Amino acid sequence: KRFGVRLHNLYGPTEATVEVSYYDCPVTGLPEIIPIGKPIDNIKFYIFDKYSKLQPVGIPGELYIGGAGVARGYINRAELTREKFIQTPEAEGDRLYRTGDLARWLDDGNIEFLGRIDHQVKIRGFRIELGEIENRLLSHEDIKEAVVITKEDDSGNKYLCAYIVSTCRLTVKVLRDYISMEIPEYMIPSQFINIENIPLNQNGKVDRNKLVSVKGQLIGGAEKSAPKNETEKIISDIWNGLLGLQDIGVNEDFYGLGGNSLNLIEMLAKVNKKFGVSLAVGQVLGIRTVEQLGEMIKKYMERKKEDICVLMNKAGSRKVFCFPPISGYGNYIKPITAELEDYSFYSFSYIESEDVVDIYVKRVLKEQNSGPYVLYGFCIGGRLAYHVAHRLEQLGYEVSDLIFIDTEPGFTAGEMKEEDIDEQLEVQFEGMAYNKRFASIIESAVRKRKHYFNYLNNIVDNYTVKSNIYCVHSEESRNNMTLWSKLTEKKMKIYEGPGCHDHILKDNLVYYIDIIRNILEEIFGLK
Asked: What is residue 437's predicted lDDT score, i.e. its pLDDT?
């Protein structure tokens, strides 16, 4: 307006004849997002996920360009041409160019550029788009430039570090609070460093390799405060040793000092051992400072810890202790308990602890101080029930019966690789990762499932128990169920039902409730 000209934001790679989209910037006001606009005439845009499926409005994916402007390929580079120029049924025969750019459709038909696909990284099992974090930082009114890269700590663990050029002093709390309004917790950088200028290469693009050598100021929080009591002093010493620092203030942010989720797990193990408490990872995720953790430990010692076992119906003499499927939550059993009111179902949720079996045993003994015990497990919860039964037997208690619903034994430790577990979780939560409204819930569910996967993946079922085993399986899981007969000194019965594993207690609920009712009546001598 000042110079009497209009500003147009243009986008396009050389492989599609340079400019293929445009956005007319408004004359007045500054929009929150400046998109790359809409395709020009005779050009089409497509946004695909990694499975070559079209993405809906608002969901990020890779941008493909089709239409008259797309080149035929690269001269004398047939392999690169095949990689970058493709055809897909979704584009109705159009020849497309893969831009390698991350983008998403906006409600008004414009497209927002989010960064480069090759700036996608994987940290602690999560795929992270660095460009999405950078865009969020750049939307802050006091930040002029921002670049996010990955670094490694002394143990080789990756973490995110953000370099920013700002117009005023910002604290870690301000930055974290601002980012978390749009970005899930696992995408928030562990460190923020203020620098004077972002280094550029000869082409005028960000030189990420030079960033690590640029001198900057690590952004901290408020002024340091010394520990006020012995608890805070012990926690500060643990943090200092873990993060390689000295004299951490009790109000400094753990993540702002360079901590990450792996450091958190290690820190928690040291704290639990030092104070004789059993805090779970989920309980301390929101803890940021020594002061906050000290207060939590104080409260923990004043009251009992969070309940991990819920009585689903009523208290009675016929007790059944239930262990969860891969979701890790105990509420899966509710539809069954509603129909079997003659029994008291105690349902456990999975807790992220290597001492999970011992914790469950203590709770079982609290609810029923003598045997015989009846344990029930669905999916991998059956394996958990099996290990709890073995521990009870080691302590001299009788476990009369085990009920497994679609549970196969595991005879080999480490059978699933880390990448296989990540891939399974990614498939289960496909399409949900960018739902900001449920980001924290999704992150918690992924974390719980991954811990559950890893826990059982690293133990084997090689004990012989003295319990009767009742195996109920769906049509698709019949092959390995009979292997439980090798792990008991007593009888094993097998029951087969219809359907597949994922819907065994949904589409065919009534059928399976009848089977479970018959098993319980036999166990408790009601028929």
From this structure: 44
pLDDT band for position 274 (cuts 50, 70, 90):
confident
Q: Phi and psi of 373, rounded to 5°?
A: -110, 150
SS3 74: coil
Residue in the structure block whose two tokens are 């949900």? 432
Classify residue 421 by burial, with Cβ atoms within 10 Å: 0-12, 13-18, 19+: middle
Residue position matching structure tokens 């999560």? 126
Q: What is the largest CA-CA distance in the chain?
A: 92
Percent of the chain with pLDDT over 90: 34
The residues, any chain, with a CB within 8 Å of residue 519's CB and separated by 6 or more, are: 403, 470, 472, 493, 495
Residue pair 8/33 in contact by the 8 Å Cβ criterion: no
Question: Residue 32 corresponds to which tokens in the numbers above?
Answer: 């929150």
Q: Are 236 and 250 in contact (CB under 8 A)?
A: yes
Q: Which of 121-125, 385-389, 432-436, 498-502 has the highest mean pLDDT?
A: 385-389
pLDDT at 91: 79
Question: Does the pLDDT value for residue 38 go beyond 50?
Answer: yes
* DSSP state string for 182-217: TS-GGGS-SEEEE-S---B-TTSSB-HHHHTTS--E
Average pLDDT of the residues of the chain: 84
The residues pairing with 375 across neighbouring beta strands, listed in sequence order, are: 321, 402
| 12, pLDDT greater than 60 | yes
Question: What is d(CA 479, CA 61) in angstroms, rounded to the nearest whole number?
Answer: 40
Distance CA(244)–CA(249), nearest Å, equals: 14
Take residue 137 and report the two structure tokens written for it: 């930082």
> Alpha carbon of 151 to those of 66, 122, 147: distances in Å?
37, 12, 13
Length of the chain: 527
CA–CA dist 334, 157 (Å, integer): 40
Q: What is the rounded distance in angstroms from the CA atom of residue 137 to the CA atom of residue 219? A: 14
- The predicted structure's pLDDT at residue 97: 95
Lowest mean pLDDT among 210-219, 236-245, 486-495: 210-219
Distances (CA, A) of 120 to 130, 189, 270, 286, 328: 6, 14, 33, 26, 29
Question: Is the pLDDT reported for residue 23 higher than 90?
Answer: yes
| 3-state SS, residue 144 | strand
Tokens standing for residue 206: 């960000």
How many angstroms from the chain centroid is the CA of residue 229? 35
